[in-house]
Specification:
Shape: elongated
Pfam family, one: DUF7037
Mean pLDDT: 86
Number of strands: 23
Structural class: alpha+beta
Largest sheet: 7 strands, mixed
InterPro entries: DUF7037, DUF7038, DUF7039, DUF7040
Low-confidence stretches: 234-238, 248-252
Radius of gyration: 27 Å
Strand content: 25-35%
Number of domains: 4
Oligomer: single chain
Length: about 425
Amino acid sequence: MTSELSTFGFLCELNDETIYAIERGIIELKNTGDLKLGAWYDIWENEFEQRAIYENKRCEVWEHNGEVFAQVLAISPNHFFLDKDIRQKYKYAVWSPLLKFLDDGDNLFKDKIRGDDVVEIVVKYAPWKNGNFKIVELIEEAPFEGSSYCRLPPWTLEQMARKLPEALVPKLDSLCINQFKNIQPQDVHVGVCIKAEAWNPAFPQRVKPKDGANFKCSYLFTPTLGLVRWVIKDFKTTEPTASHLAVYNVKSDMIEIGKRTGKWVSFNLCEENKYRKSGGPISKPALIRATAVNVKEVSHVPRVTRVVGGEAEIEASFLFDQKMFESEENSLIKDWSLRRESLRTDTHFWDTDLGKVEVFAKISETIIETIETHRQSLEPQEAEKLQKEAIVVSVTAVVYNNFMKNFETYPKNGIFFAKEVDTICYLNGGRIIYQK
């Protein structure tokens, strides 16, 4: 097999052959020979083959009398925790992470299961307007352990995305805003190195920079701390000899300076000795008096990060809301030469790892125009169905050149901005609207 593995799934119908692929929904493939209903297949670009052995305890599949059945876990909404419009949108919905929305036409789930309870059920392949499977039997409530993957259904994600900006705006007593707050050195933080080498503001102005002096440092960023200086002082050295002085062995360092940008690390924030021992009121901002210590590269990177031309490019996303880009009145203007003049100049979104990410008008225009063009291309019935569906915009975020100046007024000004749009898709189902 030379072609790259695309996905896998199980056979649902024996027409031209319809395979339900876990990752990509229904896929129709031409009949190439003996196939078995309910059997699992590896699927490539133009071919597929049966898996000799496949056991997925989260999705047990079988065939009976020409119909395909599956045993999976499913969940329905707890309406008490949802906003009214989201509650109405997902009223009586039942969802499985593997099979998506399920048909509860016989009201088995609706009449017997509480919202947010995860239940083991049996479904059969029976395509309907919102999905491909119908509930035929309730088995039992699933134990909490092992069912966590079910607890991020579309309604929860949509509710979380809506409340995220409010939750992510830094509190007034956060160190990123109040730089004169006490520092807790025992706390462990995770951040990203946004610059490998930049001017060190703690370097004494009266001292002339020279080799061996730390007049430059690296910078980490976390949403709660803001900018953090990273100066590694504990370089390993070669042993001195009678004819040679000890020298720094940079390659023995944990991360070479040239490789720091884009690294996600854990660290403690610790004040330098002269500030810890002063005993008086705090007179210097945290950026000056503290540095990152115990810096270690994390094994699980929280975000897709690339380094291009020495610049960190980080994936970030947000839920599309037209009001963040322009007023309702402005959205009615058809002529973009007029419309773009009144796009908001303070457009931004809040990210769990990057804090405030600013969006320039050119990017705003691209996002709005792409979504509007997509909606205009839909058939009326489909357009009505998708009108209220949440849309996710994914961008490449980069660091401002004047990030240190911006930090002086953070969070009024952000450290990151959206460089380009990567993907626009529907939150529910992931249907692509635009992809770079």
